[in-house]
Amino acid sequence: MGGRLPSVVRKNLLLTCWLALPILIFAGLIVWIFVSAGRPKAMNAEAVGQGAGDTGGANALGEWIAGRNPNDVERANIARRERRPIDPFVWPGGTEVIVEHDAGAPVSFGWVDAGTGLLRSQVLTYRDDAWRAVLIEHRPSPGVPVYVSVGDMSQRIRGDERAVIGADGGALRARSIGGVVPEGTPASEPLALVIDLRG
User: Fold this and answer.
1) 166-171 contacts: CB < 8 A, separation 24 or more?
2) Are strands 161-165 and 154-158 parallel, antiparallel or unpaired?
3) Contact residues for 56 (Cβ-Cβ < 8 A; gap 6+)
4) What are the tens digits of pLDDT across the range 95-135?
C-alpha cells in the first residue's frame, strides 16, 4: 500500500474539505473586515460633486430614526459647508459646553427655562484641562442668556423679581451666546461652545 490512503478515506477527506470550505471562506472574510476596519482611511478628501457632503435632506428618514430633526441637520450642514455661525443650542448633535478658568473649584452652567421661568443648572465635569458638559436633550432655547458660576448657582424669586445667584451670594451676570462656526463638526456630534472665565 505504501503511503497512499485508502480510496474511502480519501473521498471522506475531500468531502469534509468541500463542506467546510464555505465556513472557512466566511471566517476569512470576517477576519479581513476586522483587520481592515482598524487601518486608517486611504483617502479623506473633501466631498465634491452632487451632494458634496450634504444630501439636501435625502437621508431625512435616517435622521428622523436617529432622533434628529432632518431640517435642523440640513441647516447645520449648510452652516458647516459655508462656515457660517450657528446658535450652538440648535445644533442637532447637542452642545458641548467648555468653561476655562484658573480656579480649582467646580463650575456650574445654567439658564432660566423660557417655559417655566425656573433655573436649570448643572455642575460641569473636569477633564482635558477644562470644565465640560454635553447638553443634548435639555438646552437653552435660542437667544436665552446663560449663567456661569464658579461653585453652585441658585435662583431667588421675590414676587416678579427673579435673579440667579452664585456661590458667593451675589447675582450672576447673564451672558448672551453668539453663533459658533462649526469647523468640521459633523451634525451628529456635539458642537463645542467655549466660555473663557480667565482674566
Assistant:
1) 167/105, 167/108
2) antiparallel
3) 74
4) 899 888 876 788 899 999 888 888 998 888 888 888 888 88
pTM for the predicted model, two decimal places = 0.62
**Helix (H), strand (E), coil (C) string for the chain:** CCCCCCHHHHHHHHHHHHHHHHHHHHHHHHHHHHHHHCCCCCCCCCCCCCCCCCCCCCCHHHHHHCCCCHHHHHHHHHHHHHCCCECHHHCCCCEEEEEECCCCCCEEEEEECCCCCCEEEEECEEECCEEEEEECCCCCCCCCCEEEEECCCEEEEECCEEEEECCCCCECCCECCCCECCCCCCCCCCEEEEEECCC
> Measured between alpha carbons, how far is 90 from 71 in angstroms, rounded to an integer?
11
| The three cell numbers locating residue 196 | 473663557
CA torsion sign for 33, 38, 42, 48 is positive
pLDDT tens digits for range 111-122? 998 888 889 988
Nearest to 149 by CA among 127, 128, 126, 174: 174
